[in-house]
């Protein structure tokens, strides 16, 4: 099975781009989709409506990327049940610190060009470790800004394939479909993350709500950049 | 260098072969693309942009200089063939005109002094002067479009320029096309504005996802184009007079044809 993991900033157009691409891919392959979000989404219904088996996962109190990684096996089972040759996982990806891509999946980063030329420098590993970077909404900014944005993406990820897409018209879908086809075979037993998740485990992660610094323990980092372990 | 692009026929949305075998376009040529919404204009442009090799829904093939292009031309984003200009585009970057143009020039590996040249030529297309210390986000539609045209002419390397519906842009259209084609670029204009459409040498008529026919601009149309361009220029002048709070005089020499037709 081929596994495609799509990450991107909220509202960048991940679902629209994936819908257009899946419409092309499913002419030749059985596709299943898993949509991960944090609290609420109706996006999975959009996948149902084009006739693709789709599963929704809400991460609630768990970090959505960690949730995606933890549940990879269950998602594969879902895809196998539907005899899918391709599993597309749309992640929620919010803090930009994790990258959910694994060694043999196709990592697709969807990024919105209207968020300004510094965005590629801010978003971290989900851009820098992606195989394919899909730039959306380029049709509403000038050619010059598109070229600056593209250059910044390449600064962060020199070997990526860039696709300029439009979720509304379907532009870029054929190109992205070709990338799906070229993805490697996924092997659940052997997969590893391309980029480690953050080290910082602190008391906030396990439910602390008090703000004062005296109540916090764990691997923490100060405003001045000093990182330390507080605790026993 | 790209001297020409060729479009080899594919099929339309209902699977019928397009009724031409090859459309050959030379550098410096201006080609119109016309047809209603959904007729396949965007797909045609996308084929050119992606250098389709019978692998898109239209099955068209695009050749460069008469040959199948190298794979790296297709996939290296820095070598993208098509630069685009459209009515919907805005400048969103929060910086001055000069800072922005220098940044763009740097990204393209060009001399940052090009900024001055771009501003100079942009000012030849718009009635409202653009200064280099202005913030991009305060530019009017006409100023933005002029700057985009001049930027594409001198900083973007793309040999093909796609102009999509810029009829109400408030810029000197004829001069804008001349500036772009003068730099040896192939220009594709998607438009139903007769001023622009008749300035082209040929028009591709789209229907049901395919090229239905190819019209070569006739002598009659060329004469009409000269007249329409004059009208367009006069409209531009009057618009600037209105903008500057002037009273419009019918006797003014700048609006000769209006004067002729209204007061005889």
3D structure, described in words:
The complex is a heterodimer of chains A (232) and B (264). Chain A is built from eight helices and nine strands. With 232 residues, chain A is α/β, with parallel strands linked by helices. Chain A folds into two domains: 180 residues, P-loop containing nucleotide triphosphate hydrolases (Rossmann fold); 34 residues, no CATH class. In chain A, strands 3-2-4-1-5-6-7 form a seven-stranded parallel beta sheet, with helices on both faces. In chain A, α1 packs across α8. The radius of gyration of chain A is 19 Å and the shape is globular. The model of chain A has no long low-confidence stretch (mean pLDDT 91). Chain B folds into three domains: 134 residues, Rossmann fold, CATH 3.40.50; 67 residues, Helicase, Ruva Protein, domain 3 (Orthogonal Bundle); 46 residues. Chain B starts with a strand and ends with a helix. Chain B has a six-stranded mixed beta sheet with strand order 5-6-7-3-8-9, with helices on both faces. The model of chain B has no long low-confidence stretch (mean pLDDT 86). By secondary structure, chain B is α/β, with parallel strands linked by helices. In chain B, α4 crosses α5. The longest helix of chain B has 25 residues. The chains are: A alpha/beta (232), B alpha/beta (264). Chains A and B meet through α7 and α8 of A and α1, β5, α3 and α5 of B. Chain A: InterPro entries: CobW/HypB/UreG_nucleotide-bd, Hyd_mat_HypB, P-loop_NTPase.
Features:
heterodimer, A: 232 residues, alpha/beta, 2 domains, 7-stranded parallel sheet, two-stranded antiparallel ribbon, 29% helix, globular, B: alpha/beta, Rossmann fold, Helicase, Ruva Protein, domain 3, 6-stranded mixed sheet, 37% helix, GTPase activity (chain A), Ni2+-binding GTPase involved in regulation of expression and maturation of urease and hydrogenase (chain A), zinc ion binding (chain A)
